[in-house]
Design a protein that fits this description.
This protein has five helices and six strands, in the order βαβββαβαβαα. With 153 residues, the chain is α+β, with helices and mostly antiparallel strands. It has one domain. A six-stranded antiparallel β-sheet has the order 2-3-4-5-1-6, with helices on both faces. β3 and β4 form a beta hairpin. α1 crosses α2. The longest helix has 12 residues. The chain is globular. The two termini are 15 Å apart.
Length: 153
């Protein structure tokens, strides 16, 4: 089980990510955006992963590594982004990048301080079945919805 924090996507979330973290450390063709930062308790590295929507399609005319930057800039400027957020990402997940052991409460406190926004949910999840289901569906499910389902009491 992995401690994790989850934020549903919103303009405020994208602007906070851009202002606090800058450009992603890595971007993926599937739409994922990733930051690796020592924001956790005792400076453990947290993986911040902006998960794509099911069936993600990159906006036409925007390169894979430019999607986040262009969307964040548009939202911060009050302009329309290249595509609506609900067609790009479902939400953000933060968890220990290298399997460091940390309880959910200290992770939540550290992640909230780093991002400046409290998560919508936090707790322990089993990423294995979520990843397996996502692979079998060829990206046709929402990872965020699967994580949130596991976090429901």
């Amino acid at each position: 089980m992995t401690p994790t924090c989850v934020w549903r996507v919103s303009p405020a979330l994208i602007v906070a990510l851009d202002r606090r973290f800058g450009e992603p450390f890595d971007t993926y063709v599937n739409g994922s955006q990733v930051w690796l930062r020592p924001d956790g308790p005792n400076d453990i590295t947290i993986e911040w992963r902006l998960h794509p929507v099911a069936g993600y399609r990159r906006p036409p005319g925007v390169g894979t590594s430019e999607v986040f930057e262009q969307v964040a800039y548009a939202l911060a400027s009050g302009d329309d982004p290249a595509a609506p957020l609900d067609r790009l990402w479902d939400g953000l997940e933060a968890f220990p990048a290298y399997g460091d052991e940390v309880e959910p409460a200290p992770l939540t406190a550290a992640a909230t301080a780093a991002l400046g926004l409290a998560p919508d949910a936090a707790g322990l999840v089993d990423h294995g079945p979520i990843g397996d289901t996502w692979e079998r569906s060829q990206g046709g499910i929402s990872i965020i919805e699967e994580v949130l389902r596991q976090l429901q009491p």
